[in-house]
Amino acid sequence: MNKFKLLLPFLFLIVLLGAQNKSYAQSQPVLYFCERYDSDDGEIGISDRFTTGYLTVMVKSSSELGLTNCHIQFDRYNAASDKFEFYKKFDYKIEKDMKYVFFNKNEDNDLSFDKPGFYRVFLLDKNDKTIASALVQIIPKD
Q1: Model's pTM, two decimal places?
Q2: How many CA atoms lie less than 13 Å away from 21 in the CB half-sphere?
Q3: What is the DSSP letter of 96?
């Protein structure tokens, strides 16, 4: 009987923790990278490591993003300060009901990674609130 009394608080704790709302990695929009997006073939060359140059930033969500004006921002890791620092920011216009969108080079934005390093990339709303983010490594071309 004494063992049961000791076990009861642990069982209660397990039940209480199990009743909490669960959060899953895919419950929010996901940002990732590919070499390019093709309207017929889709995403080409998905990775988190690329050589310097142009990339395509992909965002996928299970619900509408609700954005019209948004930004893609690059922050580059500075080893000397051990911090990510602002590098570049690009403005885009998208449709409010989009759940799946790609951001790439266009007439207004070059979306290029010019220097090797580690980058934090953000999709930001018009008020610079983070919608999604991811890390990417850029290495020199051979």
Answers
A1: 0.78
A2: 2
A3: T
